[in-house]
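User: Before I run my own analysis I want an independent prediction to cross-check against. Here's the chain; please return only the structure tokens and, at the end, one sentence I can use as a sanity check.
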Amino acid sequence: SVPTIKTLAACQIMYPDHLEEMSRQAWLGLYSKDIDITDKENIMQFAEAAGISEVDELMKFSLGPEARQQLIDNTAEALESKCFGNPWYTVTNPKTGRREKFFGHDRVEMLGWVIGKDYVGHHPPQE
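Assistant: Structure tokens:
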């Protein structure tokens, strides 16, 4: 998964407003579509689906030292939070300001309750 998480780290720096959606696209690719999320073409599709217009620039940036350092920093933060598996989520409860941690894709519904969002499943209804 290194190519994917390096690209997500690059997205965190270059396109922070698109990070949530790009992460969602990778998550759906892995857990709903059962595709290789480390494949460059698939990573590029995740970025495009997230609304990133300069996908080639993002991919190039993901290979550089800034993205590498962001990944190192993210890993350090995960270890400090006692992360013990993947997927690991740390969210801030908007009502209390408390940081809460969740492990496993089967906890996404609980995560939604904490942040006040409805979880509509892996395959949300299309409008």
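Sanity check: Strands lie at 88-92, 99-103.
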